[in-house]
Design a protein that fits this description.
63% of the residues lie in helices and 0% in strands. By secondary structure, the protein is mainly α. The radius of gyration is 15 Å and the shape is elongated.
Length: 82
């Protein structure tokens, strides 16, 4: 199989202290999950700012680190084929 026909997938190299990205997840699915994660971060950030909700702020921080790990891993998966 040459590089032109390999599907784009996650590399599975990124992780946080508690979570890691599994290798081989199709990039389209990873983008869908990333969109959901960032939607939650936005909602929690709004709640934290408008209501002074420190717990929502902490949750937003944790989810944003997960989103960053996913983005970095997706980039590694894409660059792996270059």
């Amino acid at each position: 199989m040459n590089d032109d026909t390999q599907p784009l997938t996650t590399a599975g190299v990124e992780h946080t202290d508690l979570f890691s990205v599994r290798p081989g997840i199709p990039i389209t699915q990873a983008f869908d999950e990333l969109s959901v994660l960032l939607g939650c971060v936005g909602h929690l950030t709004d709640q934290a700012e408008m209501e002074g909700d420190r717990q929502a702020g902490s949750a937003a921080r944790i989810l944003s680190s997960l989103a960053k790990a996913l983005i970095n891993d997706m980039e590694s998966g894409i660059n792996r084929l270059r």
